[in-house]
Design goal:
seven-stranded antiparallel β-sheet, 3 domains, 24% strand, alpha+beta, 5 helices, 331 residues, five-stranded antiparallel β-sheet
């Protein structure tokens, strides 16, 4: 009898130990499960709260950032959690993202258009860098960039072209404009913009420093782009030509006697401007940049020289005529 009681006690003890071990092992698993469920519930609650707080139609950068944060919380949910978000809030998010894309395209009255995600923000900062090649006068320098608001990184167009629209300068006194795009490799891309309703529009496949230069038409149909109020007499050094190519992304101006051609990177159209002056052979051409026609100070000096020569010949002829008359009277 005592032996049987002893055996029962051992069995009860073993059972108790097994039960205690099972409970000890189950507690951490239950804790992890409870924490995971709490985190999921917390994530859903945070996303729902952010969706409720964000504006349906964002109007400024602060509103856009509220939409970005709500979208990040929503996208972090799994499919089941997303289904738990009400259809009304999901529709609100879609509408807010579309409006945020519109707000993100404009900064300081400068607008970019193209196939860009809604979360890509276009930013413009005015630059103090007024330097430029000697043939150009900078009207307005801009630092332009694209930013991925989801992670804060720079957005790369990867060769895709977008269109940029900037306002024409106030008190416009220029006949035409040129966009100078300073590329990462140190070269300058020269872009000829088109004018539409008081704005200048050009195409680009990358963003960095852009400078707007203005051109003024001179006597004889020639164009000169001035820097620091250069006088016409300081620019009688022949012609130069400049071109811009969207496919290569690089271009430097080169000197040439003959025609000057500018290629618009967006439309791939070409415009040639040629002005004709006088030379010893009767024909000479000047480029649209950097040349002053012969009708200026140089032309006046030439006319003055011709006048002096004619006057001298006239005096010599009169003296010869007087001498001949004297000889006839003596005879």
């Amino acid at each position: 009898m005592n032996k049987k009681k002893k055996t029962d006690r051992l069995k009860a003890g073993a059972l108790g130990l097994a039960l205690a071990f099972s409970i000890t092992a189950a507690v951490p698993q239950y804790t992890v499960f409870a924490e995971t469920a709490q985190e999921q519930q917390s994530g859903s609650a945070q996303a729902e709260a952010a969706l409720n707080a964000m504006p349906r139609t964002p109007q400024n950068a602060a509103d856009v950032m509220m939409v970005v944060e709500a979208a990040k919380l929503y996208e972090a949910l799994d499919d089941q959690q997303k289904d738990e978000i009400s259809p009304g809030l999901r529709a609100k998010l879609t509408a807010a993202q579309q409006q945020a894309g519109i707000v993100n395209r404009t900064c300081k009255d400068i607008t970019v258009t193209g196939d860009l995600p809604w979360y890509v923000q276009f930013t413009v900062e005015e630059s103090d860098d007024m330097s430029a090649p000697s043939d150009y006068m900078v009207v307005a320098p801009y630092e332009m960039h694209l930013t991925n608001l989801l992670d804060g990184s720079d957005y790369d167009l990867n060769g895709q072209e977008v269109s940029v629209s900037i306002p024409k300068p106030e008190g416009d006194t220029y006949d035409s404009y040129k966009i100078l795009h300073y590329l990462d490799d140190g070269s300058i891309e020269y872009i000829t913009p088109t004018e539409q309703e008081g704005r200048l529009i050009f195409q680009t496949a990358s963003f960095s420093l852009f400078k707007l230069g203005g051109t003024t038409e001179l006597v004889g149909g020639t164009h000169q782009i001035y820097e620091d109020a250069v006088r016409p007499s300081d620019s009688e050094s022949g012609g130069s030509s400049s071109s811009s190519s969207g496919s290569s992304g690089k271009n430097q101006p080169s000197n040439a006697a003959g025609s000057s051609t500018s290629k618009n990177t967006g439309s791939s159209s070409q415009n040639a401007n040629t002005s004709k002056g006088s030379s010893s052979s009767g024909k000479n051409s000047a480029s649209s940049l950097g040349t002053v026609p012969e009708t200026g100070e140089k032309g006046l000096k030439w006319l003055y020289g011709v006048g002096c020569a004619v006057s001298l010949l006239t005096v010599v002829g009169i003296l010869i005529h007087i001498d001949l008359e004297k000889k006839r009277s003596r005879e």
